[in-house]
Write a structure and sequence with these properties.
Length: 358
């Protein structure tokens, strides 16, 4: 981070980034060179470079044709990107081997026949999902999937993408611990992000069953060298709990029509850009989250890196705010999306003015 801003406690709780000196418009505040964890949606994996996230359609091509190792499920736009990925993201071949393992196991899944029978978690009312109930469900999952003979859980395409995201994070932590001999600063930064595990399940009770099935699938697919990371559900829960509300979409860079989301990435340091002035929490497990629908910071993807730049001049003491949603949307739509995905009612100055509230 530059010396022009610092991480400080906020008056509303938590921490935020504040300018310590005047910052001109278009100043590059922070560059997150590479995500801690990432996944490209499986349906786009031939069209999105696995290293720099370049989208083939933007180059007027249908797909990229440079592959990594057989079975790794990763394609690249140039030989240079392929080599960079092999050297930096696929050390010891683990990422490619895990991708292949997930793909093989996915082919053995058998979709349940007949109508869907809701699990107990899916049938629960939100107010019944206490932390105790939640922890018990995960403990049961640990015991269930510890048995080798347990059938492979059936996952839909998005759930399989969640498995691949978890794999990316686990492999990253493995590499960092091998290099440092201890838990890394990057993993510690990830743990500093707000944990939305209970918020997410409280808003979407079916996610408890989904997350435990994802864990069960991962335990079957995991390579022996990575087995210690999934012996219990602790690490999987830590990642999934911070996935919701803390990741950044990988979007196509098209300037025509609607942009399409191609996957998502987690940049822990980038999530320090807080948001200002929201109303009270919408859900009982939610810590207050704060959003300014007139942000002073914008995000810009430059290949694999995510950069944060000022939109306007910023005064000393002013909080640096980015946006969660498209701030060009009308106020009702913005607030509905924030409530649906981040579990709070936005009460920033702009929203109040557009709603005619005091």
């Amino acid at each position: 981070m530059t010396s022009s801003f610092s991480l400080q406690s906020t008056h509303y709780g938590g921490r935020g980034l504040f300018a310590t000196e005047p910052i001109p418009k278009d100043t590059l505040l922070l560059t997150c060179s590479s995500p801690y964890a990432t996944v490209i949606f499986r349906r786009f994996r031939k069209e999105v470079c696995g290293n720099c996230f370049a989208y083939a359609f933007e180059a007027k091509r249908n797909a990229w044709n440079i592959k990594a190792d057989a079975g790794s499920g990763v394609w690249f736009c140039t030989p240079e990107c392929r080599n960079a990925w092999l050297q930096e993201q696929n050390v010891e071949g683990l990422q490619g081997l895990m991708n292949a393992s997930v793909e093989r196991l996915a082919k053995t899944m058998k979709q349940p026949k007949g109508p869907h029978t809701p699990s107990p978690a899916e049938s629960m009312l939100p107010e019944a999902i206490t932390l105790e109930v939640h922890d018990r469900a995960w403990k049961n999952a640990e015991e269930k999937y510890a048995h080798r003979g347990c059938p492979t859980a059936f996952l839909d395409e998005l759930e399989l993408d969640n498995v691949r995201f978890l794999v990316s994070a686990i492999v990253q932590r493995y590499f960092e611990e091998r290099q440092s001999g201890t838990s890394s600063a990057s993993w510690a930064a990830l743990l500093q992000l707000q944990n939305n595990e209970m918020n997410h399940v409280y808003a979407n009770p079916y996610m408890l069953d989904s997350h435990t099935r994802i864990y069960g699938f991962l335990r079957k697919a995991i390579l022996p060298v990575l087995q210690p990371y999934v012996q219990t559900s602790e690490m999987v829960r830590a990642i999934l709990g911070r996935d919701q509300g803390n990741v950044f979409g990988i979007w196509d860079m098209s300037t025509e029509g609607d942009s399409e989301m191609l996957g998502w990435s987690m940049y822990p340091t980038g999530s320090y850009f807080n948001h200002s002035e929201s109303l009270d929490s919408a859900f009982k497990f939610t810590h207050q989250r704060f959003l300014d629908c007139s942000p002073n910071v914008r995000k810009e993807r430059r290949g694999r890196a995510l950069c944060f730049l000022t939109i306007r001049d910023v005064e000393p003491g002013e909080e640096l705010c980015t946006n969660y949603v498209d701030v060009k949307d009308e106020v009702v739509g913005r607030r509905a999306e924030l409530l649906r995905n981040w579990y709070f009612h936005c009460a920033c100055k702009r929203c109040h003015e557009e709603l005619g509230l005091p």
